[in-house]
Write a structure and sequence with these properties.
Strand order of the largest sheet: 1-2
Strand content: under 5%
Distance between the termini: 40 Å
Helix content: over 70%
Largest sheet: 2 strands, antiparallel
Shape: rod-shaped
Structural class: mainly alpha
Length: 84
């Protein structure tokens, strides 16, 4: 159940980040509010990056080849696909 919560936290953090960006782009915030929003945005960005990094690690561990689990470098696979 904790795994599902982490996904929800990622989605919530991403939604909050989008709201902060929209608020800042509208230009209706005071300087102090903008600074607080920016600070919160940095925190949310780091949380999202951490969640994505953890998800990538899980994918690498779970890739299956010929019935056996095998770690795959996702960046390398994407680069090979681009060359085709």
């Amino acid at each position: 159940m904790a795994k599902a919560k982490k996904s929800v936290d990622f989605e919530e953090a991403l939604d909050q980040l989008e709201e902060l960006v929209e608020d800042m782009e509208n230009g209706d915030l005071t300087l102090e509010e903008s600074l607080k929003a920016f600070e919160q945005g940095i925190k949310l960005t780091r949380e999202c990056q951490t969640a994505l990094s953890q998800a990538e690690q899980k994918v690498q561990m779970l890739v299956e080849e010929n019935g056996k689990l095998k770690a795959v470098d996702l960046d390398q696979d994407f680069d090979e696909d681009d060359e085709s």
